[in-house]
Write a structure and sequence with these properties.
heterodimer; A: alpha+beta; 4-stranded antiparallel β-sheet; 10 strands; B: alpha/beta; 2 domains; 6 helices; lyase activity (chain A); cytochrome c-type biogenesis (chain A); cell inner membrane (chain A); transmembrane helix (chain A); Cyt_c_assembly (chain A)
């Protein structure tokens, strides 16, 4: 019922359905044939069902330890815990491509179900584009990375999973990140459909924005989760390594953030139309290219999938069709989209333009830094690496004006703002930021961390004061405040929350720039001090876990003689994979993380020493907390009535026609 | 044709995507032919004289050797860093034995107990003309070794002319080492 052959067949069936989903509605839309266009949602849902069934089959193969399936034999084992048998399905190349297409199909299903208020032709075209992309990736899955490939004879047990990946954080990181990546396929499809139709208007901006915001929320969560994972699992004390794979997720996040903002201008002022369409295309293109770069092996990264240039050629061809095709369509049709809005630089839309320029500049820097090494090697034959110093030096100066503008932007009215009046709203926030600056001078060292820290406080204060002013705190009665709170659009709450989240993340980054660490070699009972805390190695003992041997340390941390906590970092040896992992011990009070790692044991008897790595990471949890707050802000604005209802006029018109 | 903002906005993405696409395609096709390897390790010592060293031998396999002895050779020598604990080194041995019919290979046991290293290379017949022990990996640091197995082609007079950071086999010998011997 749920065997590998059924799964393989369902995948092929989904691929055929996706091809039909691509061809029929487009043809129908051209012939203005409502029946053909009307098939699109049904095709999308059937494709989703077929693909969901296929994925379920793969999960069942993994759960039932069917080692005749190559993918399961290579990545699973009988002794693996059930949770990791399930999540291990997407922990490898083949399974993750299947998950990728499944999420794309879910997006298609969501457009079919939630897009009922869209004009039929537009919905048909959007679904057709999604179907086309789906078909391409399902063909990739079937032809070059078939997850249902069989082996004969089937091995008795599988080879097991990389112990580093046996972690709940990583188990759910890929689905969330992929939902973010793939979610941007919907704005992309909207952009291409709009180009085919030759019309972008306020209604289009309103339709496309919730999809972009939803994808953005997932991508934000995915990046934060990945960064958190590398912080507490890899045990290097770092949180972001400017690794090509991390950059591959940051690049679409930056253009996606720009898209979420520029779509507001399309919705409110019918401006920036071409730019928004281009951003929608670019964001999804970057998502796709990221997937390609990771899997082709071109980029030298710690996150290596089993690389295969043959797969790379297939994805590159797919990219050429999707990206090349959409950009060619853009070049051909964009001139027909006319912009109506003219706007002054000092206005809400002006500040959004500035936001877009800065975000895209940061994006250009990250793209350059990521692509420079492989291109340098290709053209000059020299191997170089571009790392943290470049990215820090190039991105932070662009982030400073971005933070400054974030605080001012939401306080500006649309069309034309009076500077004096706007600034009068911001006195309080500026005052708090000034206090913050003093605080930063006291606590932080270095010009850039101080500037970033003060500006982050400014963003938080300005966003909070903007909401407080709108709900009339200070000049309306309590009853009035309550009324205004209820009527303030959710999207305003969402924007303020997202901006506050960004401020919290930046504060966390500033705190982490002051992190201190020490690598010490100590005997049992010895004490070392780091930044005012005394770390004592109390004891080290060995124990045997389910599929590993472990060495666990007890480290007491005292501050001024008072016990703060006892950390228990571990080092685990996984015997079947002959791999060692470190289990970091972290004590957090949400202001400072005390982070301990145990390394090697040296010597024997009384001379036994242990290598310990001690970290003191100020404000570390704020980085991910901020990401979460940003995503919650996005989700809040998604719940806004205006986002859900779509274009009321059109719906009303259709209802009238029906009546 | 006059340059407009809209023209730039449509041209730049297409040109950018095109350049990236052509570059990626070149990288992929070079990766298949082996000309482009993103994980290649470039050794800065290639083209330079070998560093100074003196190492003891392994039990039952004669004395070690020094840089002076290596420099005094009249034929090119392949210097191979290996270890008995290294799985690719085990896999490399048949290939090394095949290569050793064409040219001398001198082995350096990297961070290995001398008795283990000695037993390891004598198990199926040693490919090495001479063997030395780099017990604590000090010499390997001077050579710029990042892992085992790694091999260096040393010209008479002691100049390093080629470096390989993968397990050697006759194919690599024919493709990379033999053409370089012709010029010596």
């Amino acid at each position: 019922m749920f065997g590998p052959e059924q799964g393989h067949f369902a995948l092929a069936l989904a691929c055929v359905l996706a091809l039909v989903q691509f061809a029929v509605p487009l043809w129908g839309a051209n012939r203005r044939d409502a029946r053909l266009v009307g098939l699109a949602p049904y095709l999308a849902v059937s494709q989703l069902i077929a693909l969901g069934y296929s994925f379920l089959c793969l999960v069942m193969c993994a759960v039932s330890d069917d080692f005749s399936v190559q993918n399961v034999a290579a990545n699973s084992a009988v002794s693996k815990p059930l949770l990791y048998k399930i999540t291990g399905v997407w922990g490898n190349h083949e399974g993750s491509v299947l998950l990728w297409t499944l999420i794309l199909a879910v997006c298609g299903g969501a457009v079919s179900l939630f897009g009922r208020n869209l004009p039929d032709i537009l919905r048909g075209r959007v679904l057709a584009i999604l179907g086309g992309v789906s078909a391409g990736f399902q063909m990739f899955c079937l032809l070059t990375s078939d997850p249902f490939d069989r082996v004969f004879p089937a091995p008795m047990d599988g080879q097991g999973m990389n112990p580093l990946l046996q972690d709940p954080g990583l188990a759910f990181h890929p689905p969330i990140l992929y939902t973010g990546y793939v979610g941007f396929a919907v704005p992309f499809a909207f952009a291409v459909a709009a180009l085919i139709e030759g019309r972008v208007d306020a209604a289009w901006g309103r339709w496309v924005r919730p999809w972009a915001v939803a994808a953005w929320c997932f991508l934000t969560c995915g990046i934060a989760l990945g960064s958190w994972w590398s912080y507490y699992v890899l045990g290097w004390g770092g949180y972001w390594f400017w690794d090509p794979v991390e950059n591959a997720s940051l690049i679409p996040w930056l253009t996606g953030t720009a898209l979420v903002h520029s779509a507001i201008v399309v919705e409110k002022r019918e401006g920036l139309k071409i730019w928004t369409v281009l951003l929608a295309i670019a964001t999804f293109s970057f998502s796709l290219s990221g997937t390609f770069l990771v899997r082709s092996g071109i980029l030298n990264s710690v996150h290596a999938f089993a690389n295969d240039p043959a797969r790379g050629v297939f994805i590159l061809a797919l990219l050429a069709i999707v990206i090349g095709g959409s950009l060619a369509l853009f070049a051909w049709r964009a001139p027909s989209l006319t912009s109506t809005g003219l706007f002054s630089p000092i206005s809400r839309e002006g500040s959004l333009v500035l936001n877009n320029i800065l975000l895209c500049s940061i994006c250009a820097v990250v793209v350059t830094g990521t692509m420079y090494p492989p291109f340098m090697q290709l053209l000059a034959g020299r191997t170089i690496s571009v790392g943290k110093p470049f990215f820090d030096a190039a991105t932070i100066p662009l982030t400073l004006p971005l933070l400054l503008a974030m605080g001012v932007g939401t306080a500006l009215p649309w069309k034309r703002a009076q500077l004096a009046r706007t600034f009068s709203h911001l006195y309080a926030a500026a005052g708090i930021a000034a206090i913050g600056l003093v605080l930063c001078f006291w606590k932080l060292s270095g010009v850039l961390p101080i500037a970033c820290g003060a500006l982050a406080i400014w963003v938080i204060a300005a966003s909070a004061s903007d909401v407080l002013r709108r709900i009339g705190i200070g000049h309306t009665s309590a009853q009035g405040v309550w009324e205004r709170m209820k009527h303030l659009p959710r999207s305003s709450w969402g924007a303020a929350l997202a901006h506050i989240g960004a401020g919290i993340t930046v504060l966390g980054l500033c705190g982490m720039s002051q992190a201190q660490h020490a690598i010490v070699e100590v005997h049992i009972g010895e004490t070392r001090s780091l930044a005012g805390d005394d770390w004592t190695l109390l004891d080290v003992h060995d124990y045997i876990g389910p599929n590993y041997k472990a060495m666990q340390a007890d480290i007491a941390i005292r501050h001024n003689g008072k016990l703060v906590t006892i950390l228990h970092p571990e080092k685990r040896d996984f015997t079947t994979q002959s791999q060692t992992t470190t289990e970091v011990a972290i004590h957090t009070n949400f202001i400072t993380d005390l982070y301990g790692v145990i390394g090697d044991r040296h010597g024997t008897g009384k001379d036994t020493t242990y290598v310990l790595r001690l970290h003191r990471n100020p404000l570390a949890p704020w980085m991910w907390l901020g990401g979460l707050v940003m995503a919650i802000g996005g989700a809040f604005s998604l719940s806004d009535r205006r986002m859900r209802i779509g274009a009321p006029k059109r719906a009303a018109a259709r209802n009238m026609a029906r009546a | 044709m006059n340059v407009t903002r809209r023209g730039i906005l449509t041209a730049v993405p297409i040109i950018g995507a095109g350049v990236l696409g052509v570059g990626f395609w070149r990288m992929l096709s070079d990766m298949r032919s082996g000309a482009f390897d993103p994980r290649a390790i470039k050794n800065p010592n290639v083209g330079k004289p070998i560093p100074g060293f003196a190492m003891p031998g392994l039990p039952g396999l004669g004395d070690g050797f020094t840089d002076a002895e290596l420099k005094a050779q009249h034929r090119p020598v392949l210097v191979n860093f290996f270890a008995s604990w290294c799985i690719p080194c085990v896999a490399e041995m048949p290939g090394l034995r095949a290569i050793s019919r064409n040219m001398p290979i001198w082995g350096i046991a990297y961070e290995d107990k001398p008795e283990n290293a000695s037993a390891f290379i004598q198990r199926d017949g040693s490919p090495y003309a001479r063997v030395a022990s780099d017990r604590h990996g000090r010499v390997a640091i001077d050579w710029g070794v990042t892992g085992v197995p790694e091999s260096f082609l040393v010209a008479p007079g002691g100049r390093i002319i080629w470096h390989g950071s993968a397990a050697l086999d006759p194919q690599i010998y024919e493709a990379e080492i033999r053409p370089r011997l012709a010029g010596l």
